[in-house]
Amino acid sequence: MNKTVLYARVSTADQTLQHQRTQAEAAGFKIDKVVADHGVSGVTTKLAERPEGKRLFDILRPGDTLVVRWVDRLGRDYQDVSDSIRHFMRDGVIIKTVINAMVFDGATKDPIQQAVRDALIAFMAATAEAQATATKEAQRAGIAGAKADPKTYRGRKPSYDRETFDLVTGMLATNAGASAIAAVTKLSRQAILRIRDDRAGAEKALALWEM
């Protein structure tokens, strides 16, 4: 019997799996199994080198569905994300993303569809690497600013943690409204709108308090 597996990466000790699972289930996925890595950097560690990530290569079978919040969960950079997706497709596994509802299926034999699919994989993998780079730069900027002026630069502590921030940005990417996001995250509409209107600033503020 085919199964649907949610793979999640939880990068800090304060995060939980609940937001990622809630978002996946809200998107209509019925999750049979959850596989998660805790405290592992997605920017520096390949999927196959993560304690739980490497289990995916063993437990997924032809016809299974692998669900991830977005393709950035499947690798540390462009090459790793591309290689992971293509490996699973060769094994007959269907990859689906919660954000933007992307589907990567190796079953298609039509050359035009294959070309479109492969181009999409390349684009999504490149976007994932660009987003990871932007996140690192925002964190560096925040830390550098805090070191330069630790008393005044840090500012007010955000009302959200990293996991909630990722959930908000993920739901914004699916064009969810502020009220709907507030109901899921328990944040105020004002906080959500601030993240929407100035993601870089929100990212920097969060980075200051993650030091």
End-to-end gap: 45 Å
CATH topology of the largest domain: Rossmann fold
Which class of secondary structure composition applies to the elements?
alpha/beta
* Helicity level: 40-55%
**How would a crystallographer describe the biggest sheet?**
5 strands, mixed
Total number of beta strands? 5
Overall mean confidence score, pLDDT: 79
Highest-level CATH class of the largest domain: Alpha Beta
Q: Count the helices. How many?
A: 8
Shape label: globular
Quickly give the CATH architecture of the largest domain: 3-Layer(aba) Sandwich
Q: Beta fraction of the residues?
A: 5-15%
What Rg do the Cα atoms give? 18 Å
Number of domains: 2
| Strand order within the widest beta sheet | 2-1-3-4-5
Low-confidence stretches: none
**What is the string of SSEs from the N terminus onward?**
EHEHEHEEHHHHH
The H-level CATH homologous superfamily of the largest domain, spelled out, is Resolvase, N-terminal catalytic domain
Folded structure, characterized:
The chain contains 8 helices and 5 strands, in the order βαβαβαββααααα. Strands 2-1-3-4-5 form a 5-stranded mixed β-sheet, sandwiched between helices. With 211 residues, it is an alpha/beta fold. It has 2 domains: 4-105, Rossmann fold (3-Layer(aba) Sandwich); 128-209, no CATH class. It has helices at residues 18-26, 56-59, 78-90, 111-148, 162-173, 178-185, 189-197, 199-209; strands spanning 4-10, 33-38, 65-68, 94-97, 103-104. The mean pLDDT is 79. It is 49% helix and 11% strand. The longest helix is centred in the middle third of the chain and has 38 residues, at 111-148.
